[in-house]
Amino acid sequence: MRDRTARTRAGLSAKSVDRIQLGDPRIHVTLSHLRSLESQARGLRFLPRQPAASVLNGRHASRLRGRGLNFEDLREYLPGDDPRTIDWKVTARTGKPHVRVYSEERDRPALLVVDQRMSMFFGTRHAMKSVTAAEAASLAAFRILDQGDRVGGIVFGDDFAAEIRPRASVRARDQFLAALVRANHLLRADAPITDTPGTFNQVLASVARIARRNHLILLLSDFDGIDETTETLIAQMSRHNDVVLCPVTDPISRQIPEDLNLVVSNGVLQVELDTSSGDTRQRLQDFSSGRIQAIIAWQKRYRLPVLPLSAGEETVPQMRRLTGFGPDQNGGPA
């Protein structure tokens, strides 16, 4: 019974358990697998100017701000200068109009926040949500560093947290990939339950501490445990940063089958669910769609780009499609 409970908790079949023991990359990622994604990241784009088909240019999504500006110098106003750059204090002190001169920052820091909690260790079709999130984060890390920006991240689980400050170095990227693998391998169907409410919000508070302004922040999670505090933290971060929400879902969350008889467990307690009951099926559907509805509301309210990812299909084609490139296109230089 314990084996059956563990399998149903993670959405695993007996064959899937065998694959875990054989090292199936759809269940647990490896460092070699994540590194193999580098060549496939070249078609992605995380710069302000997006292809027309990219969801980052979506109807409700604001354009990415891109790199910030550094103050360089003050000089006297010249015809044609933008009046918005006039420094009125210096102008009043000297009696002559002066403008502030800025230059674009050489790079922009990116923070990839990746959820590897037990709620992510679930998959019914192609892969675990935890694997999809790790692969998408790795693709983003490769591309962001390649386009000249700093990359770092926070990888967190129920009993794990790793913080890598954004740096323009291969070492920082590799530290991030290693943290992904370590957190991912802590997930297993029979892992003990850790009751840590508010974990997601604690991580967002850490993100806000690191990324005060002009960061690109990608949140890859199933957004389990979100509440009003979550919305407040995301709204605050989005005022001075580019925040991209990447909800990771399993296909079963979109349509609950009518012929399932499940034993669902949290590792301690268990309950049997019969989805042939219309009332039971509707309650499950409402529960699974609640988080997505909240994210859609945030997207419209705060004009946040959303990259929805499914654990039911390969990650690379999804990322290419969502950022405006087909699976067979090169996408051109960033």
Helicity level, as a percent range? 25-40%
* pLDDT averaged over residues: 79
CATH class of the largest domain: Alpha Beta
Q: List the domain count as a whole number.
A: 2
| Total count of strands | 10
Helices and strands in order:
Layout lengths: L1 H9 L3 H9 L8 H5 L33 E8 L11 H7 L3 E7 L4 E7 L13 H18 L3 E7 L4 E7 L2 H16 L13 H12 L5 E6 L6 H13 L1 E8 L11 E5 L4 E5 L3 H25 L6 E2 L4 H8 L12
Parallel strand pairs: 3-4, 3-6, 6-7, 7-10
Antiparallel strand pairs: 1-2, 4-5, 8-9
Account of the protein in words:
By secondary structure, the chain is of the alpha/beta class. Helix 5 runs antiparallel to helix 6 (170-185). The chain folds into two domains: 2-64 and 107-322, 3-Layer(aba) Sandwich (Rossmann fold); 71-104, no CATH class. The strands form three sheets. A six-stranded mixed β-sheet has the order 5-4-3-6-7-10, with helices on both faces. Strands 1-2 form a two-stranded antiparallel sheet. The chain has a two-stranded antiparallel ribbon with strand order 8-9. The chain starts with a helix and ends in a 12-residue tail after the last helix. It is elongated and about 75 Å long. The protein has ten helices and ten strands. It is 37% helix and 19% strand.
